Amino acid sequence: MTNLIEAQDISGEHYNFAYLDEQTKRMIRRAILKGIAIPGYQVPFAAREMPMPYGWGTGGVQVTAAVIGKDDCLKMIDQGSDDTTNAVALRNFFVETTGVGTTTKTKDASIIQTRHRIPEETLTKDQVLVYQVPIPEPLRFLEPRETETRKMHALEEYGLMHVKLYEDIAKFGHIATAYAYPVMVQGRYVMDPSPTPKFDNPKMDQMEALQLFGAGREKRIYAIPPHTNVVSLDFEDHPFEVTKFEQPCAICGAENVYLDEVILDNDGNRMFVCSDSDFCEDRRAAGHVGLLGTNPLDADKTTEEAE
Amino acid sequence: MSTQATASIFARAPAPGFSDPVHNAQSVFRAAMNAMAQPGTIQQLSDLALTPPAPLSVSATALVLTLCDYDTPLWLDADLAANDVVKNYIRFHTAAPFVESPAEASFALVANTKRLPAIASFAAGTSEYPDRSTTIILMVEDLKTGQGVTLQGPGIKTEKQFSVSPTPPVFWQQMQDNSRLFPLGVDVIFASDHQLAGIPRSSQISGLEA
Questions:
Q1: Contact at 8 Å (CB) between A28 and A221?
Q2: Rounded to whole angstroms, how far apart are CA atoms B175 and B39?
Q3: Mind telling me how many Å the CA of B53 is from chain A's nearest CA?
Q4: How far apart are CA B35 and CA B37, in angstroms?
Q5: What is the SS3 assignment for B126-141?
Q6: Cβ of A231 under 8 Å from any chain B Cβ?
Q7: Mind telling me how many Å the CA of B5 is from chain A's nearest CA?
Q8: Looking at the predicted structure, is the pLDDT value of residue B206 above 80?
Q9: Nearest chain A residue (CA) to B69
Q10: Would the CB atoms of A155 and B157 count as touching at under 8 Å?
Q11: pLDDT (tens digit per residue) in B67-94
Q12: Pairing verdict, β A210-215 and A128-132
């Protein structure tokens, strides 16, 4: 019996560079230029279906695909980490469709695509930070109609957002929004910084790198050029506060960085470690050690060697 | 077919576009993106083997090939609009529809700054869709930093001195009025021979020369 369908070679070289066809890239590139010219404004674009589900970063992937060139060096992070599922899957996607070099080192990357974190290391003017955005409209949960939110942005009618923050204060005594904390861009547009922890908001202000935001399902692209004013919304008597952690990173001892909580056992023991894995590795390499910074297996080895 | 007939077909055929359409368009876009993200800085275009028909420059042509297609109504200045070789070249490579009215254009290509109509005559977008505006690709002879008008705003740390030549006398005044429309307004990409610079609507312009 003969095989009716012959095995087909579906290796990367059969795709256009960076997967997207050239017309799609042109359309996305035009949206990016408009986004840069109108900081914080959500530019509609004709997002394509991508070979990954919505919610996996199809918007960020399309923006990166339109920007990336063969000489770029790509870093891909998911919640600050280079080695979680989303980061690994999307990094491999670009390796297969572009063949560009990749890195986990923040300072070596020319394009950093991120899901929900901004690297701890200060970014430079030659870098581009691409955010994956699930819901680009900061007013969406306050006003479900797109026609209305569009009007609200046109008229700079952002009172509703302040009411929401005020209700937080009335209920909890403080602004309880901890991620996707709304910002005002260059004094004009209220923008959703994507679900980054509010800890990262101050890094967006006057950042030297270009920040691009892509929302695939919602079909929006927006941008913050370098050196742009990004202010977290707040009140005079309830100023914006950055999340503070009570203890340093358990592995590298870093302070004033964003930490993830890791449950250690069934007895409720836990540790807090750097969310930015590259930053943590760099500090470890430089000799910084936190409370739990030694590997128990290493300790066994040393004991064995000693014995 | 006789060699004479073949030769005449080639004589009438439009000049070639990018030698490497994918990567050339990418590198030109990156230059344009950086030009917009850092207003008033000069971006070099890498070597492009483009041979556009006169009076189109390599950089302006590269921008058109990179950004325009059947989705982008294109407005040409009066000289270009009367030039069939130029129109055939752009139509063949991009399929962009030409429009008569600057207010209908996504992109405007201006080869001679003297032929630039009032900037206010281009589309500035609407308050709900400020992105529905014209991007002007303006061919110039020279781009300079460190002199000329002062730019401030997004993409500029403190301020930036920038000059282009030639510019029509009312140009900077009109650009200043344009930036007052923010978030509406047009964006301008200046294209000298192998260089680009941009002034988006978000840049505030001061220090106009008398």
A1: yes
A2: 13
A3: 23
A4: 6
A5: CCCCCCCECEEEEECC
A6: no
A7: 34
A8: yes
A9: A23
A10: no
A11: 999 999 999 999 999 999 999 999 999 9
A12: parallel
H/E segment holding residue B66: helix B58-67
B165 to chain A, closest Cα gap in Å: 23
User: What is the rounded distance in angstroms from the CA atom of residue B146 to the CA atom of residue B138?
Assistant: 20
Can you read off the two tokens belonging to residue B64?
């058109």
Give me the amino acid identity at B146. Answer: G
Q: Which residues of A148-167 are buried (b: 16+ CB within 10 A; e: fewer)?
A: ebbebbeeeebeebeebbee
Fill in the DSSP letter of residue A49: P
Q: Which of B18, B27, B28, B30 to mutate to test the interface with A (most CBs of A within 10 A)?
A: B30
Structure tokens at A148: 């209305």
The two tokens of residue A242 are 């950055």
Contact A238, A174 (CB under 8 A): yes
| Confidence category of residue A307, pLDDT binned at 50, 70, 90 | very low
Query: Residue A192 is encoded by which pair of tokens?
Result: 């959703």
pLDDT score at A10: 45
Give A192's contacts (C-beta < 8 A, 6+ positions apart): A133, A135, A136, A137, A138, A180, A182
User: pTM score, two decimals?
Assistant: 0.93
What is chain B's alpha carbon radius of gyration, rounded to the nearest angstrom? 17
Give yes or no: A249 in active site.
Answer: yes
Question: Hey, what amino acid is at A25?
Answer: K
Chain B contact present for A189, CB below 8 A: yes
Which phi and psi angles does A260 have, rounded to 5°? -100, 145
- pLDDT reading at A302 higher than 80: no
Which amino acid belongs to residue B82?
A
Mutate to test the interface with B, among A21, A22, A38 (most CBs of B within 10 A): A38
Please confirm, yes or no, whether A280 is among the known catalytic residues: yes
Is A73 one of the annotated active-site residues of the chain? Answer: no
For residues A280, A286, A291, A297, the Cα torsion angle rounded to the nearest 10 degrees is 90
Quick check: A129 and A64 in contact, CB under 8 A?
A: no
pLDDT in tens, A236-285: 999 999 989 999 999 999 999 999 999 999 998 999 999 999 999 999 99
Q: For the segment B149-198, what is each residue's pLDDT rounded down to a tens digit?
A: 999 999 999 999 999 999 988 999 999 999 999 999 999 999 999 999 99
- Interchain CB contact of A25 with B (< 8 Å): yes
A69 interfaces chain B, CB cutoff of 8 Å: yes
Q: How many residues can be counted in chain B?
A: 210
- Rounded to 10 degrees, the C-alpha dihedral B35/B37/B38/B40 comes to 50
Contacting residues of A for B155, CB less than 8 Å apart:
36, 225-228
d(CA A44, CA A299): 55
